[in-house]
Predict the structure.
Amino acid sequence: MAELDESGRKLTIKLVYYGPAMSGKTTNLMRLHDLLSPDSKGEIMTLETKNDRTLFFDLLPLGFHTTSGWLIKFKLYTVPGQVVHDATRKAVLSRADGVVFVADSQRSQGINNAESFQNLEENVRRVGLSFDTLPMVVQFNKRDLPDVLTEEEIRTRWSAAPWSLMMASALTGPGVRETFVKLLEAVYPILDKSFSLSEVHGTDARTFINAVTGETLGNPG
Amino acid sequence: MEIRARGYDSALSLRELLSGVVPDKLSPALTVLLGAPPRVVSANGSWVMGDTPPLAANARRMPLTHDLETVGYLETTAKDEARVRAVTVILESFMRLGARYFMASEMHIEVVKSDYEELQRKHAALAESEARYRELAENLVERVKEQVQTIESAHRQLYQTEKLASVGQLAAGVAHEINNPIGFIRSNLGTAQSYVMKLQSVAESIKSSGNAGLVSAWQTADLDFVLEDFPSLLQESLAGANRVARIVSDLKEFSTVDQIEDEMVNLNDNIRSACNVAAHQINDHADLELTLGELPPLRCKAGHLSQVFLNLLLNAAQAMSKRGKIRILSHVEKDRIVILFSDTGCGIPPEVMPRIFDPFFTTHDVGSGTGLGLTVSRDIIIAHGGNIEVSSEPNVGTTFTIHLPIKRENP
């Protein structure tokens, strides 16, 4: 649940990149850091082990000021994908406002994707969130690699799921920003309902998304 | 910002962010770099590190940013823009390291706590399971013994029930077959008695008729004796027939042993019919003395209790080395019916006493008894909520005492 600081005029929104080990969650964050240009953008804080595997989490802070003078702050987290770090995943997931599930498109990774997704489902329940209401986007990453599932195969398999499916290649960039925007689109209505973003802060969905991504107003192209 | 909620993603104060540096060493170092003393204050202006107030009027103020927000300021009179900027970067780097350490440690605590709780939960489950198994192991012998007893008891019941059922069927069949002929035998004997009386009435007129041939034939045949003896023969036969009829009726009583339902009976009736059924085996060995007190009606499996009485009677009869006496007493004590079977037989030797209720234990020769009589008797009494006790003295006699609770009949 987003954190409202009335006295500090600040709203903090937590978004989590979840998924199996080595699926490219940290790479997503690094690419976003390069691609986005909001009002304020922090450095990525990584807590990794020696061999570049995420130990606890990565954190990318982003933010912008509304016309009403409030700071809307985004904290983008990744979870450690390795199975043993389940307690950490649970801790990072708690109070999340939205989730990107980063799946590995390689054919060999089907089981890892499925197990991780099941783990997400369990942890969502354990931290008191609901799969029915939690905004979520599913990203199939590593489209640039050979021997990946075709988009058609993926869309057929996930046709019954309610979440947006995004194809991405985090290493080179395509799809990373689009995935993030898709998640913002899903998160905005809930935030607007809770905090009257549109009425009180003069921030409609378009303004909201453009402000986070750093698009110039009225010029999305 | 001095007070913060715990948790890896909680907001941090400048003081916390700089908790990793030693101000006494850093401040002089920064003074060297700036060429003037630095002072670090938090966002609300409170002093954190460096030179103490008051500060010169021409001091500059540079915001220190962490996590997109200004959490404090660097104040200095240094003029060189580049140096001031460099010191700001150095301070922010320290703050960043502090935050990184803080978040890692908070996350570590959270994970350790969560893992520990999980461990505790598993430990508790394991301890519970272990306790269950230990309890099971401790009680295993006892439980097996219980099971064996249950099976043995069920086995005996089955054996007895089948035996009683077949005896009952036989008894019912025999009783039915005998009832008819004994009916007309008794009726005919009565008629025969009246015929003899008629013959007697004509005897005098024949003897005084003066017909020498007739009188001589009468005397040769000794019909005087015949006419005198005939009524008593018939009377004895009638008595015998009546006894047969009574035994048949008692047999029918026993033929109901396979009835499972409870019935209301006066146990004295059951004692009497047991005595009748056993009379043949008892009469040669002992005299029977019944002292039956007033008993309330009892809801019970009457056939089974009759079987108990019969068992005890036959045991008593078999215990007689010479002719003796069997006494049966019944009376009420408080809320229980008490029935005693005493005999003046050979008694039970002390070494045998503990085993008399054991299944298949018998002192009789092979084939003459199953060794189940007392076992089943006790089972039956216990099934009625009662108990059976025995006291015995060798060569003096044995007494079995049965206590049965009087169950109130449900309206």
About this structure: Helices of chain B lie at 14-17, 23-34, 81-207, 212-220, 223-254, 267-283, 302-318, 373-383. The first strand of chain B starts at residue 38 and ends at 42.
